[in-house]
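Appendix C reproduces, verbatim, an entry submitted by the partner laboratory led by Prof. M.T., so that reviewers can inspect both the input and the predicted structure.
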Amino acid sequence: MRHFFSDNLNMVLRSLLIGLLLGTTQVLQAQCPSLECKGSDISAPLTVAVDGECRAILNVDVLIVDPSTCPVDRTLIVRDPSNNIIVQGINEVVFDATAYIDQTLSYTMTDATALPGSALTCSGFVAIEDNLPPVFDCLGTSIFCTSDTSVASIGQPAVMDNCSNIMSLTYYDIIEEGDCDFPVAYVISRVWTAQDASGNVGTCIQSILVERPDLEELVFPVDVNLDCVDADADPRLSGVPTLEGIPIPDVNFCGVEVTYLDDTTFLCTTIGYQIERIWNI
């Protein structure tokens, strides 16, 4: 009787042990039965674009061919072209990619839940790219029509890039004349173009409003007396209307045109004469 009981007990224990082992094996197999990485060929790496802070973000579900085949935590190790470890972590890693733009990096993915020596592993390659253009802070401004319109005087907009220094910064002007009854004489649209080290191009338009003067701000030349011998009444000698001390003909962006008409009256027969110069603005 004892022998029968002992044999039955041993059979039950063996069955439980086998069941437990089989159950454990089934769970482990269901966790990560397959692991296949993208970009396994270095000649066809997976492209990874950096973000606005020049960070590369690698997630295991993006790097694996079919995430459903391994729905568990996975270790990710990223290495540079010299096989030095850049970063490692579980499921996702983030790193500054400034030094790795246009380079191909390698990575290794491993099942982090498997028993030592039994974890599935795959590897692949990623090409780090910067596809974001430089960003401008392009504020407009208003100036008086006699002001200097050069970049040295007005200034250039601030421009920033996520990864590198700006390689080139150029501009050109589009000049439009304002309506006569509008306080703006001209609008200068200064078009800026910036290019970064990856060839990405950003643009902005800096709007410069050139304000028209009031007629009250014009200063007309004072009366002058000329010697009757070889008298020269040329306006360039006798004076022209000015704006802030600048002769009107030399003011390019004020939208002011000046003409004049002379009315000559002889005095004391032919001894002398008076020129009354009428300016039209």
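The chain has four helices and 18 strands. Additional entries are available on request from the coordinating office.
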